[in-house]
């Protein structure tokens, strides 16, 4: 359980992204924020570990970096721009359901009604917490939100399938992916957003938080957890991110949590806890009559 708690610190830190972005960072540059969250953290990890990929791990690290970071960030930002925040967060919370399906298709695990059921409950819980009455569905935003969930789910599943080279620890492994994702974002950021914005002291503090805590430390813990825990247990921890965002919004921004939100909070937390437990097995009671011993002739 201690490994699950350490792994959970990653989505908890990601839950601070909304408050940091809205309160500290210059508006209109979400891709630049994603770039600074990924690339410097990846280069720091490479400098600390002095480990580079070798052989097939060059392309594997690139694929995982794009799925887990480089492609994920733009899709999340597009969903956030086109949809109310609650709808975008709920679509992203569908990731455990996608992982449950991919675990069958890619990892050849047995389908689990327990995982799928609690994953669905978690999505409902997050939806009750974060979707407001003015929620609207923009088709492009919905596609981007679902694609973000699928990208992260596929990255998580392939990370579990391919494992990690024996000579690469979690810090080096995170560094490979953060660097690959950051390099993917580098041209995209300047093509879409143009020159970087001016950075004042609050923005510098925000970028430092996103890069050091939400980037380097979070992804080291995340990839360590993927290697040590069942994939579905890791996936459901992502539900913590929108819950933390909602709590910080209530504490720091004066947003209210009514009875419906509290019920949703309870459902999402129940799904997270249930996701860490093994699926119950059916206890079969034997009703067959023991075979009588044969009398020796």
Descriptors:
single chain, 297 residues, mainly alpha, 14 helices, disordered C terminus
Overall pLDDT level: 84
SS content category: mainly alpha
User: Using only CA atoms, what is the Rg?
Assistant: 21 Å
Number of helices: 14
Share of helical residues: over 70%
Shape: globular
User: Which consecutive residue ranges, at least 5 long each, have pLDDT under 50?
Assistant: 284-297
Reading the helices and strands in chain order gives HHHHHHHHHHHHHH
User: How much of the sequence is in beta strands?
Assistant: under 5%
Q: Tell me the total number of β-strands.
A: 0
- Distance between termini? 58 Å
* Largest sheet composition: none
Secondary structure layout:
Layout: H1 2-14, H2 17-24, H3 30-49, H4 57-70, H5 72-82, H6 85-92, H7 95-105, H8 113-130, H9 139-162, H10 170-193, H11 201-228, H12 231-236, H13 240-252, H14 259-275
Helix pairs in contact: 1-11, 1-13, 2-11, 3-10, 3-11, 4-9, 4-10, 5-6, 5-9, 6-8, 6-9, 7-8, 7-9, 8-14, 10-11
Structure explained in plain terms:
The chain has helices spanning 2-14, 17-24, 30-49, 57-70, 72-82, 85-92, 95-105, 113-130, 139-162, 170-193, 201-228, 231-236, 240-252, 259-275. It is built from 14 helices and no strands. Mean pLDDT is 84; it is low at 284-297. Helix 5 runs antiparallel to helix 9 and helix 7 (95-105) packs antiparallel against helix 8 (113-130). By secondary structure, it is mostly helical. 72% of the residues lie in helices and 0% in strands.
Short summary of the structure?
The protein is mostly helical and 297 residues long. Helices cover 72% and strands 0% of the residues.
């Amino acid at each position: 359980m201690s490994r699950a708690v350490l792994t959970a610190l990653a989505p908890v830190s990601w839950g601070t992204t909304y408050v940091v972005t809205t309160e500290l960072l210059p508006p209109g540059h979400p891709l630049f924020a994603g770039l600074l969250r990924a690339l410097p953290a990846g280069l720091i990890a490479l400098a600390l570990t002095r480990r580079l990929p070798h052989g097939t791990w060059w392309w594997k690290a690139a694929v995982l970096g794009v799925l887990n970071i480089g492609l994920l960030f733009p899709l999340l930002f597009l969903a956030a721009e086109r949809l109310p925040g609650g709808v975008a967060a709920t679509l992203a919370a569908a990731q455990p359901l996608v992982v449950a399906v991919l675990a069958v298709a890619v990892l050849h695990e047995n389908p689990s009604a327990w995982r799928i059921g609690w994953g669905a409950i978690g999505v409902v819980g997050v939806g009750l917490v974060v979707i407001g009455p003015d929620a609207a569905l923009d088709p492009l935003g919905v596609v981007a939100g679902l694609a973000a969930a699928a990208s992260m789910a596929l990255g998580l599943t392939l990370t579990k399938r391919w494992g990690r080279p024996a000579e690469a620890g979690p810090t080096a492994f995170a560094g490979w992916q953060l660097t690959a994702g950051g390099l993917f974002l580098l041209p995209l950021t300047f093509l879409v957003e143009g020159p970087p914005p001016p950075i004042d002291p609050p923005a510098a503090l925000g970028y430092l938080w996103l890069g050091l805590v939400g980037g380097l430390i979070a992804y080291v813990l995340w990839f360590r957890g993927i290697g040590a825990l069942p994939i579905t247990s890791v996936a459901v921890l992502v539900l913590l991110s929108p819950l933390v965002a909602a709590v910080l919004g209530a504490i720091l921004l004066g947003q209210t949590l009514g009875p419906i939100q509290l019920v949703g909070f309870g459902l999402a937390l129940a799904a997270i806890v249930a996701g860490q437990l093994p699926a119950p097995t059916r206890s079969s009671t034997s009703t067959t009559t023991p075979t009588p011993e044969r009398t020796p002739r």
